[in-house]
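Usage

Read records sequentially. Each one opens with the input sequence:
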Amino acid sequence: MHDIRKIRENPDAFDAGLARRGMDPLSNNLLELDKTRRALETRAQDIQKSRNTAAKEIGIRKSKGENADDLIERVAMSKSMQIVAEGEAKAKTEELNYLLAAIPNIPDADVPDGVSEDDNVEVKKWGTPKSYDFAVKDHVDLGEALGMMDFETAAKMSGARFVLLSGALARMERALANFMLDHQTGENGYTEVNPPALVKDNALFNTGQLPKFAEDLYHTVDDYWLIPTAEVPLTNIVAGDMLSEDDLPRRYTAMTWCFRSEAGAAGKDTRGMIRQHQFTKVEMVSITKPEDSDAELERMTACAEGILEALELPYRTLTLCTGDMGFGAVKTFDIEVWVPAQNTYREISSCSNTRDFQARRMNARFKRAGEKKPEFINTLNGSGLAVGRCLVAVLENYQNEDGSITVPDVLRPYMVGLEVIKGAA
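and closes with the structure output:
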């Protein structure tokens, strides 16, 4: 959420930032509404001061035995006038906050301009895609041939964009999640959390999913929401808190199911596990001081890349352009893993710095040692990694000509020593 004071101080910079996201200028409307709101607040305060003065005069008159009926009537009327002014000021404040909450974050200066994913900029490439001397299969053909990936049975009970994994593939998905958690906690210092998968409106507002993206979420009849990612509960751990400087940074990780309606994904990735309504993801969230968040974004991205390197999966890292960046981000790195059957890289992690955008929404602050005035924290989030998509990448990159799957070395301890996944004889 934006700070109206910063918009007042430099409206041109605010509008220029919005223009980079392809939006029209908004500062004039916002500042006009802010001016009206502040005038109403001032009016309410002036009425209060006038009433206080009149109340004192009433006391003086009465002490002298003088009539104060005119002042008493004025005080009574001023109470009604103040209630009206305060009500109007509150309404304007709510209107302003609603508008501010619907405006995306301003991109950092070094974020490339662009309108779509075609304008993203590659900043790193790791590993070389393997050459095969046979026709590669996609993960659906591989999984179904093994008898361990079943979309038809999942569709009977849940519809499209669901899968039923069994046997060694179910175990491999669990192995990948456990490996990711162990790596992020043991190697990278994240604290593992097992958070709720159901949250209330305020938690989603705090992280920027509401009100703008309600159609992408699942809402229960008793007013809960299924989380689209563990970013929501992990970030909300510090909602409303006043932290000390010594509390920072905080780094959390969690493996959760994630739920998304994919409202805008009609016709996209309808085959297979790339885009589903329910999927497993290991999330990373960092809480930092403002001056540390840029370095933390680089660190978080490296933590995600490290998973792919340990699995020996080729990948590339991109800086997202202004037109492809998420609502709350000032800068985002996407990591894309090589998918042989598609002969391309596909997104498997997105790491973003939101600075104080989420912190303002959830009023999460900290105090520096020796300072009285609190500051807003900075929050960052990233996938470490999307487990289902990682399973897709492992199946396709480690496939053999006979349809079996070689288990990556780092996963074998999690697979009870299994080296190759084969179908039933």
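Summary fields computed downstream for this record:
- The first helix runs from residue 4 to 9.
- The first strand starts at residue 121 and ends at 126.
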